[in-house]
Amino acid sequence: MNIDSKNGSSLNNPSPDTLLKRHFYTRSLRTRVVLTQLPLTLTVILTVALAAAYYPKILVDPRFVTGLGMQAIILVLCLAIPWDKLRRGSFLVIPCLDLIAVGFIRDGSTQYITSVGLLALFPVFWLSASGYARRTAIVASTLATLLIVWVPLFLGSAKVTPELLAKPLVFPFMMMAFSITVVIMTASMDSQREALEEKDAELRTALDLSKKREQLLETVLDTVAVGIVVVDEGGHDQLMNSTQAVIHSRALPDGIADPEEKDLLLFGQCKAPLPADERPVRRAILGESFTNYQMWIGQGENCRAISTTARTMRHEDGSPAGAVIAFNDNTEMMAALSAKDDFVANVSHEFRTPLTSIIGYLGMILDDADRLPADVKKFLAITQRNALRLNRLVSDLVTTDAMDVAPARTDIAALIKQSVGSARLMAERNAVDLIQDLPDQLWAMVDAGRIGQALDNLISNAIKYSPDGGTVTVGALANGADVVLEVRDTGIGMSGPEQAMAFTKFFRADPALERSIPGLGLGLMITKTIVANHGGTITVASEPNVGTTMRIILPECVMALV
Fold first, then answer.
1. Is 285 helix (H, G, I), strand (E, B) or coil?
2. Within 10 A of 239 (CB to CB), how many other CB atoms are there?
3. Distant-in-sequence, close-in-space partners of 328: CB < 8 Å, separation ≥ 6
4. What is the pLDDT of residues 394-423, one digit of tens each?
5. Which of 168, 296, 391, 561 is the residue whose CA sits 20 to 30 A from 428?
6. Cβ contact 15:22 at 8 Å
7. What's the start-to-end Cα distance of the chain, in Å?
């Protein structure tokens, strides 16, 4: 073994290499040198005990005694010399001295204990397993053991012959084979250890990187003001940021330390408890994805309005693997919307009084219309019509969802002509050309007042959002039993995100705000409600600086001509 090495692979399982590192490599170099020398010393002591018991003559042989003395001196050197302060590999002088000592011990006892020469295995193993100059170690081990068996022959009284020299050659060649085997095994083990150390370093690097990413993820999640929770397929929390921990604490019922989701204080519309299958985590782990699912959490002063969004994670086979749910506390926004609704209701109430007066006096004037010039009568009729429409608009501000429609036989073409006529003055001011693409008549079962209101809104918007002039085309046609209405302009247009918000209450597009185009952001919302109450749909197609097209489809309302 390489006693000069301070490295070793240590993962989780206590492998032999791990044990060596724990009990051998972690010790000082001096202690490791002593531990490596100790097996030979103990074997020599056993040899002395064997000789004392059965071959006492060996103990008085000067060669044997010399070998024993050398062994004692070598052990003292192992203990006394500070090997870690010397040049690297200096301790290899010990096995070299061991080979000399073994030579003396063998020469003094081989006639009684024939196997004593095998003591050379210890220093040969030490040299070969050291990892230093492996080829030199093989040659040195072979030559040393060859000298052990040949030197006594040359120093003896017998004549040295080739036969005499060849007789003990098996021993040095056996030591050479042993040395080669140890060198190969040690090299292989060192290679494996280096590979394990490299792998261990890679794993540690990956672990450090993973910890840093985990810390980064936790920091990012704790930074956002939205509650985030990750659950597995069983609905058990896997990750929760600090914002969600606060939100979750508001939903905890009294007396339950670790409640399930069905026990949490979650409420739906009218503050009624949410059924278990309608709760966001349950819906998410069942594979459902949703956005802006509104609920209330907690009770009393802790009650908060929460908007939830969920996305499902799936295994490779498509089965649910868990979900990520976001909880956004929009209590303040809900309060602001409620305050805005209250404000609109109050303003609408204040508008009704002067409007009622205006409509009343206009009615009185028009009751005696025969005395008025024709053009004044026309203008007053238009004023009365728009005053009535404004009165309905004021009412619709607070009763949009309950807006009633009363379908009746109506000529859509005439209705469009009327709306276009009302908008001509505004179009002339904006240098907008109004174009009508209509059949002579188009009869349908619709609420004339409401559809007229929707057309007025769309035509007015088309003109307002064409501040640099252009054309506004208003068309209508029958598509089977459906009525298709279209208002197309060449104005400033809208971006994709603005189109998505176009029918939202009080929404104003950025170009309208930048150009100070007047409006409240209610027209399209009311138009959509009117169309929806007719069972129809309205769509928008727009491109910035190109124009906008609004299309209404009113299903199953076309009537045959009378």
1. helix
2. 14
3. 226, 227, 306, 307, 308, 309
4. 766 655 555 678 899 999 999 999 999 988
5. 391
6. no
7. 111
